[in-house]
Amino acid sequence: MPRSPAPSLRWRAGAVVLAVAMSLATPTVSGYQLVRGPEFVWAPELRPVGYWVANAGSHWLTVDQVVAETRAAFDTWQASEAMGLELSYRGKTNQRPFDFFDATNTVGFSTPERMAQLGLSQVTLAVTSWVSAIGRGVIAEADILVNPVYTWTDIPDSGFWDLRATLVHEAGHFLGLGHSGVGRVGDHGLVAGSSVMWPYTFGRGSSLGRMLTADDVTGAAVLYPSPEAPTGSIRGAIHRDSGERVRYAHVVAYEPLRDHTVGAWADGEGNYEIAGLPDGRYLLRVNPIPAHHGDGAYFFPYGQTDRDFSVTVVAQFALISGGQATEINIEVLP
């Protein structure tokens, strides 16, 4: 079952920018994404980055259960040796998610009334907000709000909404990641191997979203590289046979020996870069956003995403050796 598109809403207040990444339950209806580029990361002086859990449970889970699932979700990202950012649980708090500018990164349940005040849809599963300094463009504060009206569970594959899977996705936003285009769709929705940062949920009753893929890990490592993080990259431009650039295409690199799949998005001028790749021989594929996905699901400007081209596979492998960059320009099929 898809997770609905996540439009980016922005408000300005003083010297900060507030942005919201939403994960919704039902659709209006494919690689890691850096919402504002590699510079949109947690401010160095705030690291290790602390987070708190709101001192409020739901009809289905106690506060202590929420704490356990929140810590497990953040620890899922922390476990990657390629990511160099430390995340630190600081305890429970009486602050609420989306009490902005309180210097407390709060995770937890809200109320339907509070969500209505914020203008959030009642079908929203969870929402992540960032506060950043306009002049510096770094993250200064972030909150994760969870909708209490759903039947949440901490038991895998129990038939209810898996809280940890949802929080793993939102923790990716907390880091500064947007939505991935790496999704594998079966007869009944997303299947194993799909990025947890895909903008649509695995569905009620599924705990597949608890497990990071290579695409997820790579995105976090590009933002916060550890000394062990791979440094190879593939970059270039996406264009038509006329030479016209293709905007916001999705480019996937697949290394068959590793079964390693990582994707990234071209920008508004058709330039792309898939960074954080280990050495290997990669098969490249370019595809447009699926027809039933909105531009807002990937934080792209409305109406500016090129979709009128066919899935294109590059005939030759892209070689990465010694952690260096490889440049490949790709002409898409009509």
Structure explained in plain terms:
There is one protein chain. With 334 residues, the protein is an alpha/beta fold. The protein folds into two domains: 8-223, Collagenase (Catalytic Domain), CATH 3.40.390; 232-331, Immunoglobulins (Immunoglobulin-like, Sandwich), CATH 2.60.40. Helices cover 13% and strands 31% of the residues. It has four helices and 20 strands. The chain has helices at residues 63-78, 112-117, 163-175, 214-223, and strands at 8-13, 16-24, 49-54, 87-93, 106-109, 124-133, 139-146, 152-153, 161-162, 185-186, 189-190, 232-239, 250-255, 260-265, 271-277, 280-287, 312-313, 318-320, 325-327, 330-331. The strands form five sheets. A seven-stranded mixed beta sheet has the order 1-2-6-7-5-3-4, covered by helices on one side. Strands 13, 14, 16, 17 and 18 form a five-stranded antiparallel beta sheet that branches. A hairpin with a 2-residue loop joins strand 1 (8-13) and strand 2. The longest helix has 16 residues, at 63-78. The chain is globular and about 55 Å long. The two termini are 30 Å apart.
Low-confidence stretches: 1-17, 22-30
Strand order of the largest sheet: 1-2-6-7-5-3-4
Structural class: alpha/beta
Instruction: Give average pLDDT, whole number.
Output: 87
Q: In angstroms, what separates the terminal alpha carbons?
A: 30 Å
Quaternary state of this entry equals single chain
Order of helices and strands: EEEHEEHEEEEHEEHEEEEEEEEE
Count of domain modules:
2
The CATH homologous superfamily of the largest domain corresponds to: Collagenase (Catalytic Domain)
Report the CATH C-level class of the largest domain: Alpha Beta
In the CATH hierarchy, the third-tier topology of the largest domain is known as Collagenase (Catalytic Domain)
CATH architectural group of the largest domain: 3-Layer(aba) Sandwich
Discrete helix count: 4
The percent range for helix content is 10-25%
Q: Rounded to an integer, what's the Rg over CA atoms?
A: 19 Å
Proportion of residues in extended strands: 25-35%
Largest sheet: 7 strands, mixed
Shape annotation = globular
* Total number of beta strands: 20
